[in-house]
Amino acid sequence: MSIFSIVMAIGDLGKHVIDSILEEKDEGEHEVEKYLATNEREIALRDLYTKNLARLEDKYLMKAAGNDPILSHDPENIHRLHAAHVLSLAESMSQVEPMALVAKNRYGDQLEKTHSLLTEMECRLRNTACNSDVIHKLAVHCEPRLRRIATETHALLADTEDMIAIKTIAEAVDGLGYNARTAGKEMMGSKGRISVRARAEGGRIVLDTTSFPGISCHGEVLKIEALLEREGFILKRAYEDSMKPRNGKVKLNDPLPLFVHAGHERDSVRHAHSSKGRKTSRDIHQCLTSKNLKLLLQDRMSKTNQNLVREKTR
Predict the structure, then answer these.
(1) What pLDDT is recorded for position 199?
(2) 39, 41, 11: which is closest to 101 by C-alpha?
């Protein structure tokens, strides 16, 4: 009798996520070279943002204070840094293929207008004599538009992944002899006196097998996991708990970082991507390879496990 939380990557089912979202507005199939699931997408966006911002800082910042322009409180430099931040948000979104494809399909006109303003802003950044107040106004105008599109697109992809996951789980338990019923992102499968409940939320599957006596649920969960993996999911156990199910929902992380122009957090980012160890644009593309994403995802899962252990010991 346990609660299992399983982190999932959509794996080979990524194509179905894209087709499901775009089928109402666009006909035909949509090829995605590398689909990034909810957890992978959040990791990749932040990693790309940091690398893009480091490159844009070198390109457009002026008036260094000592050896680090980030420490300058000069308004012109802060305005230029804010503009680099907004450009980095836009570039990072465009480099995550599923997000770029869905955003273009759902918000095409808004994106086109915003990108037109970003092009104007970057032209002004190249001109060192340009009034930085104009640059600042463009950055302030574009950022909330980009952030809203990114947040809504990320949530739409996550919701679609969850719906496909719960449908696949229902089919899996049905094949194991259960009577499976779904309601939104939840599923209940019953077989005699035992039942399996499932909930998909933000890239996780929570399986409730507390109706099973003792540890007899383990074999059934392994069967369900094997069926999901056969369908194309990539799974990793986040935790197993013999207590009651946790209340509340898993909240999606903000897919895009906030603007930070000074302080320890910003200086740490700058130091981590200084000229000495900075990645090239080729490396930015390579960070989307499955090997690097797997390592990043494993690191995120490891930190999640540590946080869950701390929760239990409080």
Answers:
(1) 87
(2) 41
Q: Count Cα atoms within 13 angstroms, Cβ side, for 75.
A: 7
E-state strands within the chain: 3-9, 179-183, 186-191, 194-201, 204-208, 234-241
In DSSP terms, 196 is beta-bridged to 189
Q: Taking residues 143-161, what's their average pLDDT?
A: 92
Which tokens go with 22?
């775009």
34, amino acid identity: K
In the three-class reduction of DSSP (H, G, I as helix; E, B as strand; rest coil), residue 182 is classed as: strand
- Reduced to 3 states (helix: H, G, I; strand: E, B; else coil), residue 5 is strand
Query: What does the pLDDT look like over 3-25, one tens digit per residue?
Result: 666 666 666 677 788 888 886 55
d(CA 116, CA 123): 11
The edge-to-edge listing of strands for the beta sheet with 204-208 is 179-183, 186-191, 194-201, 204-208, 3-9, 234-241
Token pair belonging to 101: 């494809």
Residue recorded with tokens 């603007």: 259
CB 238 within 8 A of CB 301: yes
Stretch among 3-17, 151-165, 245-259 having the lowest mean pLDDT: 245-259
Give residue 232's identity as a one-letter amino acid code.
Answer: G
| pLDDT band at residue 291 using 50, 70 and 90 as cut-offs | very low
Tell which residue, 314, 237, 278, has the closest CA to residue 57: 278
Is residue 256 within 8 Å of residue 148, measured between CB atoms? Answer: no
Angle between the 38-60 and 132-175 helix axes, to the nearest 10 degrees?
Answer: 160
Q: Is residue 179 a contact partner of residue 191, using CB atoms and an 8 Å limit? A: yes
Q: Which of 81-95, 216-230, 241-255 has the highest mean pLDDT?
A: 81-95
- Give the per-residue pLDDT at 288: 46
Query: What tokens were used for 175?
Result: 């094949």
Max alpha carbon distance in the chain (Å)?
Answer: 77
Instruction: Indicate the helix (H) or strand (E) that contains 166.
Output: helix 132-175
